[in-house]
Amino acid sequence: MAHYCDTAPGHPWHGPYHEDEYGFPVADDTALFERFVLEINQAGLSWLTVLKKREAFRRAFDGFDVDRVAAFGDADRERLLGDAGIIRNRLKVEAAIHNAGVIQELRDEYDSFAGWLDHHHPLPLTDWVKLFRRTFRFTGPEIVGEFLMSTGYLPGAHRDDCPVHRRILACSPAWRSV
């Protein structure tokens, strides 16, 4: 099986994500929430599908503003389920709204979603999955693993010989502090 580092470079959608986002540390809660929602929506689909719909997701979810999404009501749920630009799955829509509310609660104790992640780091993936399942909705091992790997909390986003890997190391991802 080919590695993402082999297939992504030069691809119009995967290339920019691979080169500029995948595996780099993320500390901003809006960016973390976006990545979390996108990973949830990828479940059962290709990452390419999600990347192609990313701008529509940004519009549909108010720029992934946690407070706005947490306040979404029934009309917003129906709007999202009717939006052909995004993935119209009721469980995924409900999870995004619910999880935004959970992030609001986490901010009370940890100041931010990133603060909560930092507080629990480092954990092995199995413990991360247990923690995410206790805390959020729609969070299986693949979703949690990809979310944490893509945001710099777990290693493995890039091969060691990938030029992007060296750039990520220069950013001191959380997994390097273990």
TrEMBL record:
Record InterPro entries: Adenine_glyco (IPR005019), DNA-3mA_glycosylase (IPR052891), DNA_glycosylase (IPR011257)
Organism name: Billgrantia bachuensis
Gene3D superfamilies (UniProt xref): Hypothetical protein, domain 2
UniProt-listed PANTHER family: DNA-3-METHYLADENINE GLYCOSYLASE 1, DNA-3-METHYLADENINE GLYCOSYLASE I
Name assigned to this protein: DNA-3-methyladenine glycosylase I
Domain of life: Bacteria
